[in-house]
Design brief:
The chain is α/β, with parallel strands linked by helices. The chain has eight helices and six strands. The termini are far apart.
Length: 228
Amino acid sequence: MAPDSLAQLYAEVVACRRCPRLVEWREAAAAAPPRRFAGQRYWARPLPGFGDERARVLVVGLAPAAHGGNRTGRLFTGDRSGDFLFASLHRTGFANQASSIAVDDGLALHGLYVAAAVRCAPPDNKPTPSELAGCLPYLVREMAILAELRVVVALGAFAWYAVIRSLGMVSHDNSPKRVFGHLAEASVGPHALLGSYHPSQQNTFTGRLTPTMLDAVMVRARELAGLD
């Protein structure tokens, strides 16, 4: 059997229909878009990760947004969470530009890859335990394929615990782990795990997560990955 590759994984992810509730939801969102996106053609399929294949840093979110990645076909692209995230990645040297609005907008990531714990947009942004379990093998495989990976940044508590499970499968490290927190750090096998509040509007509009706070996480990720 040929070794696993990101191209092979991409093909499997985008064809996935293993979670009926998520399939129904992502397609329903595409069929009835809000007025601001009326007439646009939605991706409406699961989303693979993207970025630098030699990445030392992996950023993991919860899941695609119904009218963000589910619409554009790329994680964190075309929604407010992505606006906040990519501005930080640009300021901290991981991205060539500060915004991401479409898959052909010229965005390039350097030393960093972006993925999600769950690959389809879930109702109310709340995947079920079985849906997470169905998606985790994709994240595990991405981590194994990214041979230079050193640091994983988890955006939010959901991603934090999903990453711990996934890294444990990659490194066979089942030792106790720290609880989630902003700028929390943990070691899982050879990898460092960093926590950040998710750049959702619920956090950014209330000031729970500020640009300076997210930048601090990404700067720390660069340090741990040996990129500076």
